[in-house]
Amino acid sequence: MKQMLFTWVLMTAMALCAIEVYAIEVYDFETAEQEALYQQLAEELRCLVCQNQNLADSEAGLAKDLKDKVAAFVMEGRSAEEITRFMVERYGDFVSYQPPMNVSTMILWFSPLALLLIGGAILVIKIRRTQS
Fold first, then answer.
1. Is residue 36 part of a domain?
2. 65 and 124 share a domain?
3. Residue 77 included in any domain
């Protein structure tokens, strides 16, 4: 019984030591508006290496670099539009959760509708064939 308790304590201690501790980004914003703008942009911009995570939720190295860049731009006094435009110019439309409507993003905007129409047409054809 003593050995089982010792083993359990040892395994628990090892598990606690294995937990990764993430650093919390702390930026010295001059105003609350700057901090709010940073938080807004970190939620609106996508991590380029993660699976559908925004910058705020990502712990990837590239996301950390992008958060640092966004914070630096915010502290310089740049607007949300300027920062978003820079990120899109540098990393493409994928970095934004709200990509603009243009030729290169048409498939993003219209593929769900096209798939719905194709699925509906297939369903109608199948139903008509089974009723005949």
1. yes
2. no
3. yes
Three-class SS of the chain: CHHHHHHHHHHHHHHHHHCCCCCCCCCCCCCHHHHHHHHHHHHHEECCCCCCCECCCCCCHHHHHHHHHHHHHHHHCCCHHHHHHHHHHHHCHHHECCCCCCHHHHHHHHHHHHHHHHHHHHHHHHHHHHHC
Residue-range definition of the domain harbouring residue 81? 28-100
Domain co-membership, 86 together with 125: no
Check pLDDT > 60 for residue 21: no
Do 48 and 85 have their domain in common?
Answer: yes
Q: Which two tokens stand for residue 44?
A: 């609106």
Number of domains present in the structure of the chain? 2
Residue range 113-121: mean pLDDT, rounded: 95
Residue 46, SS3? strand
For the ranges 2-11, 25-34, 55-64, 69-78, the maximum mean pLDDT occurs at 69-78
Q: The pTM is what?
A: 0.59
- The residue written with tokens 């395994």 in the block is 11
CA torsion sign for 26, 66, 72, 75 is: negative
